[in-house]
Amino acid sequence: MNANVINNNESILEPLIENAILNAVKWIEIRCRPQEPDYMLALSTQFIKEFFNILVAVFPRYDFSVSSVYCHQKPIVDIGLDKKPELGDILFVYAERRKNGERILNALLFQAKVSNYPLLRIHQSEKHQLELYRRWPEFTYYRAGFLNGKKRNVLPKTINDGAQYLLIDSNPLTNGIYLGKGMFPMGCAVPDDDLCINNSLSRELINLLKFKSGRTIDSNPYSTEDGWSKMIWDLLRIAAFKYSKRKNAQVRSFPRSSEYNHFHTENMGTRTLLDEALGNYADIMDMGEENSGVSVVLVESMLKREQE
Question: N or C: which end of the chain has fewer CB within 10 A?
């Protein structure tokens, strides 16, 4: 979408997305005493339908597809330290489809932490995770199904906008459930020893749509030589085969293809970037828990034909 179109509607868009996130948090807190995976479930199931409806209502000149996969067992990688970090908890990907067939892709990967404060010091026991997001050493997939043993090398070796921490406020007195105005349940933080919220998740998602936040990836997963792009396509490929299940939140298993986690306008069709990520792997991957992946929320947009 054109950034100017988003800017012109941002004052409407941000509170709507914030309210959708808050509704997802309320939903999961009614069902259980949520842990980090439960909040990821809320984002990748409850949030996406409302998010889809918001995008369609605010941007009527565009067609949209919003789909998701919930994954609990996260992929682990070996970076040469005593402890092996997770790659992340949830991945947001935005695909802008243009009339000439070109696709522009943007990705935002989060490591989630529950905290009642907008500041959180990374514990010594979790510094291996920080090392991954802050310096991006070359890594080897360790618990990632068919990817086990494959190496990835993300450049440059520094912090980037595509990988951040997501701080989740579980206190209803401060996360907006009761008081609301000026409060939000989820905020984004740059990887550092002391995590400090610098944006709400709602604003960061808007910036993702504007390509102001996140990190772009190459559109062809087979020809790319970029380590970041390879990693994101890896995560999409694994997620495409996962079944969604979270016993603590009393949600039964359901397939990726069900309407529960894919919403689209008529012109977008049913095929998503997840289907493209599968490629030739569709017949060789199994559905075992060994195929650990991050949860994925995928947003795709395209200018309506009559507007071209």
Answer: C
